[in-house]
Specification:
This protein has 2 domains: 47 residues, no CATH class; 216 residues, no CATH class. The protein has 10 helices and 11 strands. The strands form 3 sheets. Strands 1, 2, 5, 6, 7, 8 and 11 form a 7-stranded antiparallel sheet that branches. The N and C termini lie far apart (53 Å).
Length: 298
Amino acid sequence: MNIRGFLVVCVALLATGAINAQANLLNARIPEEIGMKTVEQMAADNDGPLPYGYIDDRDILWSKVVWEYIDLNEKINLPFYYPVDTSNISSNRRSLYDTLLRGIKSGEIVDVYEDSYFENKLTFNDIQSRMSRVDTSDAGIDLLNAGEQITEEYIDKRDLTSGDITGLKIKGVWYFDKRQGELKYRLLGIAPVAPDVNFIDQEGGDEELVELFWVWYPGAREVTHEMKVFNQQNSAYPLSYDHLLNARRFVASIYREENIYGNRDVAEYIKGNALFQVLEADKLKENIRNKELDMWNY
């Protein structure tokens, strides 16, 4: 057997092993065994998020904290949005919002905060109050004013679902590691963004987008790694949300950077012109890219 044939066989064996180890689809005797790994497979896989290496403060030559917005209407960002309807799909496929919410509810994610400065913690009950609305309809108010009792049909209930999530806000730091000699990025926090549940579905006017909660991302990596994302190129080898986020496989625009003006947003000093705001975001991104080139210019 020549070298070329040997390499082809090796690649085929590796691909077959990846298929069997990933989903157990070909080895399942009953449907319940699909997606379940044996003890031997789990021991062999040793699957887990790639740990972050220790970075000494003295090795950071330059850094910049930025806030970015991931628009889930962008085609490349759709893996974070789908699936929306979870009634007819397996439990191991969820949107990033559902993944984070499930981790918070189960207690696997405990570092959940009110804003991106990670000071005021939120409980699951606090988060639920932000995502649900219970109100009395106009007809019910008329009955109450008339002194009559109302039933559930006069109560309007609205809960935010994954279909209402319009985007994600992330906070991270770009830094130049002088020991490695390269520019790197570390994700610090992530927040789902949706219309305010108190004003959603109202006719007329623009719906104000609000941050539902902020998750300290280093403490949520186990959850985001376990949930796999559909790979359109090869369904036998799914990716995880942790891979997508750390590899920055998404399109995002910078809406804030740390600055002397109290970390003000781009929209605060460029008002009423969406085009100029986009150009300013691109300018901030270009300045960060140029930092790595500038380190090698004398």
